[in-house]
C-alpha cells in the first residue's frame, strides 16, 4: 500500500500556515516534490537550487499549490557560498520552522573543493553542517531539521576522513556522505535544545537529478530503470512524489513531534547500520566537520 502523506500518515491534519520551511535542492526530484507538498499544507517555502530559472518555476508551482515561495540560489560545494545562503535566509526571515537538508550529489570522478574536502562529502554533508549551524538560532522550540540520507549508508563503515582522493570510488564516496548524514543527525539531536533532528531514506529514484554527475555506465543503468514500467521494478524504484513522502512526514506530521535523533524509512522508524549510531563515529565526524568548516558548535 502506498503512503501518501497528504492523505495519510497524519500529515493531512497538519497546518503549516505561518510556518517557514527551507528545502535545499528543491528544483527537481524529491526536493521539488517535498517543496510542493509542504506548500499544499500552507507553508511559506524557501526553495533552494543552483538554477535560477528552475527555481523560479518551482516557486511558482508552490504558490499555485497554495503556499508562498521565495527562491534562493546557491552552490553548496563551498562553505562560503553555504554561509552566504544562510545569511540571505536570515535577511529574509527571523524564523525557520523546518529545515529540509535534501540537496545531494554523486560524482564519479574524485575532486577536492577549495576547502580541501572531497566534493560529494562537501555537498551532501558539510553543506548541511554549515547551513544548519548558520540557521540554528532561527529554529523555534518546536522546529525541525530533516536530513535526507539513504539506505546506501549501510555500504560504508569508515574511515570517515574525506580529505584524500586515494583509491577514489564514486559509490563509496556517496555512501560515506550518506553515513555522515545519519551521524550528523545523531550528533545534532544531542546539541539542539528544543528543535528536533531526524533523517530518512526517501527511496531509490532513478529519475532524480542526483545521478547527473555519475559515470556514463551508472547514468545509463539509472536511465534504463527510470524508463521501465513501475510494475517491473516493484518496490525497488520510486517516483520523486512517492520518495518525498517520508521527508514531508518528518517535516509536517504531528505524529513525530518531539521525536529526535532517529532514522526513518517509508514514514516509519527504521534501524540504521551499527556504524551510523556508534558514538565514536559521531565524535569523529563532528571533529572532522569542525576542522573542515572552521565551525565550533556549542556543546
Automatic annotation (TrEMBL):
It holds the Pfam family adh_short. GO terms for molecular function: oxidoreductase activity. Keywords: Oxidoreductase. Belongs to the short-chain dehydrogenases/reductases (SDR) family. This is Oxidoreductase. The lineage of its organism: Archaea, Methanobacteriati, Methanobacteriota, Stenosarchaea group, Halobacteria.
Amino acid at each position: 500500500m502506498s503512503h501518501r502523506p497528504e492523505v495519510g500518515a497524519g500529515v493531512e491534519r497538519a497546518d503549516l500556515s505561518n510556518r517557514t520551511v527551507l528545502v535545499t535542492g528543491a528544483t527537481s526530484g524529491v526536493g521539488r516534490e517535498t517543496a510542493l507538498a509542504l506548500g499544499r499544507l500552507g507553508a511559506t517555502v524557501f526553495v533552494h537550487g543552483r538554477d535560477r530559472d528552475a527555481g523560479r518555476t518551482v516557486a511558482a508551482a508552490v504558490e499555485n499549490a497554495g503556499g508562498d515561495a521565495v527562491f534562493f540560489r546557491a552552490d553548496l560545494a563551498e562553505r562560503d557560498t553555504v554561509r552566504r545562503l544562510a545569511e540571505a535566509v536570515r535577511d529574509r526571515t527571523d524564523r525557520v520552522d523546518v529545515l529540509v537538508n535534501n540537496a545531494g550529489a554523486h560524482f564519479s570522478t574524485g575532486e577536492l573543493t577549495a576547502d580541501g574536502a572531497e566534493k560529494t562529502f562537501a555537498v551532501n554533508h558539510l553543506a548541511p553542517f554549515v547551513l544548519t549551524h548558520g540557521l540554528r538560532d532561527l529554529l523555534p522550540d518546536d522546529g525541525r531539521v530533516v536530513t535526507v540520507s539513504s539506505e546506501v549508508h549501510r555500504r560504508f563503515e569508515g574511515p570517515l576522513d574525506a580529505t584524500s582522493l586515494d583509491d577514489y570510488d564514486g559509490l563509496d564516496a556517496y555512501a560515506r556522505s550518506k553515513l555522515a548524514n545519519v551521524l550528523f543527525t545523531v550528533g545534532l539531536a544531542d546539541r539542539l535544545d528544543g528543535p528536533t533532528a531526524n533523517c530518512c531514506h526517501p527511496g531509490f529514484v532513478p529519475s532524480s537529478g542526483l545521478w547527473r554527475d555519475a559515470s556514463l555506465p551508472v547514468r545509463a543503468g539509472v536511465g534504463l530503470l527510470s524508463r521501465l514500467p513501475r510494475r517491473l521494478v516493484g518496490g525497488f524504484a520510486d517516483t520523486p512524489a512517492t520518495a518525498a513522502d517520508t521527508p514531508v512526514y518528518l517535516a509536517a506530521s504531528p505524529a513525530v513531534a518531539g521525536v529526535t535523533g532517529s532514522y526513518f524509512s517509508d514514514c516509519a522508524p527504521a534501524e540504521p547500520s551499527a556504524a551510523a549510531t556508534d558514538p565514536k563515529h559521531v565524535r569523529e565526524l563532528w571533529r572532522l566537520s569542525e576542522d573542515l568548516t572552521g565551525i565550533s558548535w556549542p556543546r
